[in-house]
Amino acid sequence: MSVTAAPVQRATPLGEVLTQKKSRPADTVFRVALVACLGIVGLFLAWLIGYAIYKGWSRLDSRLWTNMPTGRISRIDQAGVQSAITGTLWIISVTAALCLPTGIAAAIYLEEYANRERWYNRLLELNIQNLAGVPSIIFGILGLGIIVRGFGWGFSIKSAALILALLVLPIVIISSREAIRAVPQSIRQASYALGATKWQTISRQVLPAAIPGMATGSILALSRAIGEAAPLIMLGAFSFVTFNPTGLDSAYTALPIHIYSLLVQPQAAFQELAAGAIVLLLVIVLVMNSAAVFLRNKFQKRW
Amino acid sequence: MSTVDTARGAAGAGPSLRRRSRPLEIIITALLVVAATVSVLTTIGIVMSLVGPTLGFFQEVSFVEFITGGKWTPTFSDKHYGVLPLVVSTLLSTAVAITIAVPLGLGSAIYLAEYASDSARRTLKPIMEILAGIPTVVLGFFALNALNPILRDIWPGGEPPEFQNLLVAGVVMGIMIVPTIASLSEDAMSAVPRSLREGAYALASSKRQVAMKVVVPAAISGIVASFVLGLSRALGETMIVTIAGGLRSDRVTFDLSEGAATMTAFIANIGQGDLPVGTLDYDSIFAVGALLFVFTFVLNAVSIRMVRKFREVYE
């Protein structure tokens, strides 16, 4: 092959060709379609929140949290959801007390102690990943079969909290592991070099640095637990409970299951109260989620 | 070594370099191991709680009748235990959900990963995060009260859809899994090395060509994993289908405008009552639960595998 090809003749200089922006209609259409995808999701969200507020507007006053539920249509005007609010607060506190220490401890073990070459550690990891994908209703079956019937704990706060704790445990573990992994190895090595033991290094260096990340994951996990209805329905917490829970063995209702029991009533007045309770539940969940996002943005260190 | 240590010890000068036994460290390690095994115990508990009653169920109902029968009527006086009505309506509503969620989720992910500026991403991503946090009982309420009346109004010809139907439940489930698909797909696309994109730009590709012909194929195992995970979430979703999808299960229907109980809706509906232990009704919950667990277990295993694959390639 000789390399003496004749130079290409161009109508316009090459430089001009390269700087001209070619209009490509397909690219514009594609870009618009992508924006539309996000737009549809955003509109849906706005519609959902707007609809709940619109439907529940007449019930968004102090009756909602000062009055007790009723199943009677004649007294629905004076009904509220106080027992559901206190029930949710009870359940979520106990759930947090159960799942946060366990989840964080499991994450520390997997990140700092476990030898990943060993089969049982790999199994542990696979098990947690799989558990994160098990449907919540299956946890309800676990609760019904083993906790309510097997342990004989009945339909109590502690049954509900234990099941929700097990349900969100994989989320706590996975997010805590990510937070621990983000702490650079050099911090640990410096600590060891000063003569610290393994636990001293973890408790005084790694954990403090990982706290914002772990807090974000934990809040998101608890906010999921607050909104879960399916497993609690299986446990039997259902009908119109007219008293606040008094302890771990107390019967209860919670916001999501109370909303469900209102929704299945045919009369419009129940639907309005349900919408009011939904707005309350949405406010709680959104505040928790914003707190999580805020923590992540504010305290996340880039090493 | 040992002679040096002994000599030092005898002289009483300088610290011993031998490994000291530290009881606190051992106790803490033991506690951490115990915490880590809680998740294994949970899995064992799930399997155990399912197996016993499921075996009891199959002592009275033949397995062949269970998987081939077209009528599921455990609460009727004329009892039939064919699980097909539940399985078909589960698959139908899941198919609707995935049809809605794949384009919306993937489109959002491509925009967030390839097109959005940093500041745009910061304002747009919370949409997904808020949506992911909406309790499903709220989505069910929305499907039943807001979406379904509109669907009935605009229904083209024929009988309008029933008050509870699989179509509206499937659509809302689709929206529900958009964040799952979008965030996992975006992760997968962000893991594609910059050099691949730059190579494509150097060959005069447009942004769309880079996204569709380079980034998406390179991240495909992560993207498919996100679809599979979304599928598994839709299969296991309970409240939306219980509230808006209907509770009939006495026939197999392929008509999306009809209401029909999914596997999860049946479990939630029957599980509400205080069923006596050991009855066939009670056991039937666990048999359907076991089937659902197997379905989601397989899908989760597939998705975990595929995620691992893309991590191996680029990280």
Automatic annotation (TrEMBL), chain A:
The keyword Membrane applies. The keyword Transferase does not apply. The chain crosses the membrane at residues 29-54, 89-110, 131-151, 157-175, 225-243, 273-295. Keywords: Cell membrane, Membrane, Transmembrane, Transmembrane helix, Transport. It is a multi-pass membrane protein. Residues 85-291 form the ABC transmembrane type-1 domain. It is found in: Cell membrane. Coiled coil: none annotated. Its main location: membrane. PANTHER family: PHOSPHATE TRANSPORT SYSTEM PERMEASE PROTEIN PSTA-RELATED. Part of the binding-protein-dependent transport system for phosphate; probably responsible for the translocation of the substrate across the membrane. Belongs to the binding-protein-dependent transport system permease family. CysTW subfamily. This is Phosphate transport system permease protein PstA.
UniProtKB/TrEMBL annotation, chain B:
The keyword DNA damage does not apply. The chain crosses the membrane at residues 26-51, 83-106, 127-147, 167-189, 210-231, 284-302. It holds the Pfam family BPD_transp_1. Keywords: Cell membrane, Membrane, Phosphate transport, Transmembrane, Transmembrane helix, Transport. CDD domains: TM_PBP2 (cd06261). Its main location: membrane. It is a multi-pass membrane protein. Residues 87-303 form the ABC transmembrane type-1 domain. Belongs to the binding-protein-dependent transport system permease family. CysTW subfamily. This is Phosphate transport system permease protein.
